[in-house]
Amino acid sequence: MQPIDTLLCARWIVPIEPRDTVLENHAVAIADGRIVALLPRAEAETRYQPHTTIDLGQHALLPGLVNAHTHAALTLLRGLADDLPLMRWLQEHIWPAEQRWVSEEFVRDGTRHAVAEMLRSGTTCFNDMYFFPDITARTASAAGIRSVVGLIAIDFPTVWAADADEYLDKGLAVHDEFRHDTLVRTAFAPHAPYTVSDGPLERIRVLADELDIPIHMHVHETAHEVAEAVEKHGERPLARLARLGLLSPSLLAVHMTQLDDDEIDQVADAGVRVVHCPESNLKLASGFCPVSRLQAAGVTVALGTDGAASNNDLDMFGELRSAALLAKAVSADASALPAVRALEMATLDGARALGWDDDIGSLRPGKAADLVAVRLDGIETEPLYHPLSQIVYALDRGRVSDVWVAGQHQLRDRRLTTLDEEEILASTRRWSERIGASDAAAGVE
Amino acid sequence: MQPIDTLLCARWIVPIEPRDTVLENHAVAIADGRIVALLPRAEAETRYQPHTTIDLGQHALLPGLVNAHTHAALTLLRGLADDLPLMRWLQEHIWPAEQRWVSEEFVRDGTRHAVAEMLRSGTTCFNDMYFFPDITARTASAAGIRSVVGLIAIDFPTVWAADADEYLDKGLAVHDEFRHDTLVRTAFAPHAPYTVSDGPLERIRVLADELDIPIHMHVHETAHEVAEAVEKHGERPLARLARLGLLSPSLLAVHMTQLDDDEIDQVADAGVRVVHCPESNLKLASGFCPVSRLQAAGVTVALGTDGAASNNDLDMFGELRSAALLAKAVSADASALPAVRALEMATLDGARALGWDDDIGSLRPGKAADLVAVRLDGIETEPLYHPLSQIVYALDRGRVSDVWVAGQHQLRDRRLTTLDEEEILASTRRWSERIGASDAAAGVE
Q1: pLDDT of A271-318, one tens digit each?
Q2: Among A179, A180, A185, which residue's Cα sits nearest to residue A125?
Q3: pLDDT at B444 > cutoff 60
Q4: Can you say how many angstroms the Cα of residue B84 is from the centroid of all Cα atoms in its chain?
Q5: Which residue in A282, A335, A439 is closest to B84 by CB distance?
Q6: What distances in angstroms separate CA A210 from CA A170, A188, A193, A205, A270, one per listed residue?
Q7: CA nearest to B328 within chain A
Q8: Which of A11, A158, A226, B90 has the CA that lies 20 to 30 A from A240?
Q9: B170: pLDDT strictly greater than 60
Q10: What's the start-to-end Cα distance of chain B, in Å?
Q11: Chain A residues closer than 8 Å to B432 by CB
């Protein structure tokens, strides 16, 4: 009998690899934070001597979800300004609030709240873009969630950095600081084509190659942004990125709602990875990402919630359901983006997009033990004919019962083990009183 | 001090009328199943002597949600066949399962499960279309939820009726049977233009006028259905309904994803009410209902989940959020269908569409005490800047804590008071074993 740390038994296991597999009455053996084996429960009980055995009953176990695009700290601005046109939302509410309030404390407290929400809804890894990425990384790592923090760059000065050089220098220092933290990775995060000029983009391309890390960027989010670029520079943003040498498997292009056929081919040929944020795209009326066409062209498409200021949640189960529903309507085909693909986008494709699929995204021996357990018994999820599509089309995030990251039990029967919810809420309430008052005052002017 | 039955106190009350109102620290006084008053809590405590006082703390109280289109019994087929083109879904799975299994017991058990799910998610009234409407009505009424049951008519024989005359005769008998049940109303429910011929539609028009009840019908659900009608009869279905005199305030036209500008004007002029089912339309790739344009033309647009076989839930909070998000993208305007309107569609507009707004749909003295309480404290719903839009954009149905129908406490801190969840689940499992086996066997043929 081989000693292991944990044996997780569940009625159903959805390992994501091989595709479209649902194992019944199997178990996951975990040691040193990694998956040792995935095997029938009866066999596991004769082969392993676990320190802890957890019998999950009528649950399904699947890989932890990967939120491939968010701005965690912005959770503090959730619902500050809804139902506004994009530019009024940004110029009259989000940007003034950020200018007034963003600080190390804002990022720490906002990220902590975001991590609590993500763990409670089954997300075990998030790809972030925000100021003070060192604070984001430290907060996430301490809470026990996996993160890729964006080494942000933008043409204008902020409280984080004064100019292009300082953004990149501070970014490199963050990369260096966390290079031995197994829960943290980094990516360059030039904000968007319309906010970052050629010089810093060229330097980022070189540095990303040297460090072998991704480049995380908003690209073609709105028709307005594309039209403006054509008018000002005679070039679509994607063409400019191609000219600068940025179209490569390193590029994580977020949103991509405006793509013609040639661009889809170009993106596919270059191996660019796309992150689809369906709910944010809907809420901000940004447009429809052609997910099925991108996938048909062979492009890896991951899923992200975007920030809570434009979603308004960090709920990847909701997001993958929205993605599956929306793709059918957009491609006028009810068989488009089936459940199995939607779950894959939220797990393995997310890991692939982040270049982390050697370690996460599916339940395979040798990979990290990042798992989520969901309850499939109950009024909302019965009758149960097909567990995999039930998870996509009928499950709420409230049915997430347990979460493990690198084998650590982060959510236990819906209670967080490393974060204090009451403390987080008390902190959030202090922030929201101040932020709400200043937003209301600005509105009166 | 006036004696009353119940005083409900909550941090926020969203009465829906007047529009865009959020009352803080108010109370709802209830007697004999009706709202007596809505007033500041302090004042309520000096004026009323309640038998029961319930202090809901950091909750918001709003009118119970009105699900304006569903097929409750089909909850037993939830998730039986996902990700299929519409005709394969119907012809290979749903219709064979219905033909094999639909009976009084199927309708009773499926409806009971659906009612449990609806009450647990804040729905207090549903508009149904299915066979055995007497069973639906009896089951719903016994469980204490309000229903409008459809007196179904369809050209082909079913286990419920053999021909047009029998459908209508049995429908009239159901209308008669429940005319003194305050929780039950009826509507004629000719299935769709492509399944009901002129004769029964003309008779329904006359009978609906005589009885003063609505006509509930799927109309222009898909482009295919419209094209087929034009090809076969040289006429769009809406034109045919107009010719038959059916376009009037009695008509509840469900789906309406295919409408040109003239049809929108025609529908508005005639006072037709529309029911929008965004998630079903997405999942079946039916198309996009032009909600904002209909509303701008003055049309009352209610919201429905459709059946759980094509959604796959009966979650009106999810549905109103989907409606609000989708309308923005469809009209390319982030200010389209704001939170206040989405909530109104799910409550007062639903009541208006059913012709029941004299009694339900808003919290006004004299109306029935149909209410839902939702928790706004917690990781998922804080920070809290604007309670009304938080309910629309950040709330899950799992945050529904309490529900009252006609003053009766139907859901108490997430426990149903009149239905036994375990008993329902045991019954559903017996059905799903048999239905799943026959569906799988049919698939092998």
Answers
A1: 999 999 999 999 999 999 999 999 999 999 999 999 999 999 999 999
A2: A185
A3: no
A4: 24
A5: A335
A6: 17, 12, 22, 9, 19
A7: A285
A8: A158
A9: yes
A10: 72
A11: 382-385
Per the prediction, chain A carries an average pLDDT of 97
Examine the predicted complex and report whether its ipTM is higher than 0.90.
yes
Looking at the complex, report in whole angstroms how far the Cα of residue A314 sits from the nearest Cα belonging to chain B.
9
Above 80 in pLDDT, residue A445?
A: no
Q: What mean pLDDT comes out for the span A39-67?
A: 97
Measured CA to CA, the distance from residue A302 to residue A89 in angstroms comes to 26
Read off the tokens for B413: 């801190």
Of B77, B78, B389, the CB nearest to A82: B389
Q: Whose structure tokens read 């209301």?
A: A440
Hey, are the CB atoms on B425 and A382 less than 8 Å from each other?
Answer: yes
Structural contact between residues A311 and A304, judged by C-beta atoms closer than 8 angstroms: no
Contacts of B331 in chain A (CB under 8 A): 285
CB contact under 8 A, B282 and A397: no
Mutate to test the interface with A, among B24, B58, B74, B82 (most CBs of A within 10 A): B82
pLDDT confidence of residue A141:
98
Q: Please give the residue of chain B at the shortest CA–CA distance from A399.
A: B398
**pLDDT for the residue numbered A133:** 98
Asked if B123 and B69 count as a contact pair (C-beta separation under 8 A), the reply is no
Cβ–Cβ gap A397/B394 under 8 Å: no
Place of tokens 């459940």: A339
Greatest CA separation for chain B: 72
DSSP single-letter state for residue B368? B
Considering only CB atoms, which chain B residues are within 8 Å of A382? 78, 113, 425, 428-429, 432
DSSP class of residue B248 equals: S
Using the predicted structure, report yes or no on whether residue A444 has a pLDDT greater than 70. no
CB contact under 8 A, B389 and A424: no
Q: Is the whole-model pTM more than 0.95? A: yes
What is the overall mean pLDDT for chain B? 97
Locate B268 and state its tokens.
Answer: 């508005």
pLDDT score recorded for residue A201: 98
Residues of A in contact with B328 (CB under 8 A): 282-285
Closest listed residue to residue A155, CA positions, set A216, A197, A217, A99: A197
Residue B151: what are its φ and ψ, rounded to 5°?
Answer: -85, 90
Assign 3-class secondary structure to chain A.
Answer: CEEEEEEEEEEEECCCCCCCCCEEEEEEEEECCEEEEEEEHHHHHHHEEEEEEEECCCEEEEECEEEEEECHHHHHHCCCCCCCCHHHHHHHHHHHHHHHHCCHHHHHHHHHHHHHHHHHCCEEEEEECCCCHHHHHHHHHHHCCEEEEEEEECCCCCCCCCCHHHHHHHHHHHHHHCCCCCCEEEEEEECCHHHCCHHHHHHHHHHHHHHCCCEEEEECCCHHHHHHHHHHHCCCHHHHHHHCCCCCCCEEEEECCCCCHHHHHHHHHHCCEEEECHHHHHHCCCCCCCHHHHHHCCCCEEECCCCHHHCCCCCHHHHHHHHHHHHHHHCCCCCCCCHHHHHHHCCHHHHHHCCCCCCCCCCCCCCECCEEEEECCCHHHCCCCCHHHHHHHCCCHHHEEEEEECCEEEEECCEECCCCHHHHHHHHHHHHHHHHHHHHHHHHC
Residue where the block lists tokens 């110029």: A91
Residue A110 has pLDDT above 90, yes or no: yes
Q: Which domains does chain A have, with CATH numbers?
A: 2-63+367-416 (2.30.40.10), 65-353 (3.20.20.140)
Q: Give me the percent of chain B exceeding a pLDDT of 70.
A: 99
pLDDT at residue B443, as a whole number: 62
Q: Which residues of A touch B434 (CB under 8 A)?
A: none
- Do A325 and B78 count as a contact with CB atoms less than 8 A apart? no
Nearest residue to B81 (alpha-carbon basis) of B72, B90, B73? B90
CA pair distance A368, A273, nearest whole angstrom = 23
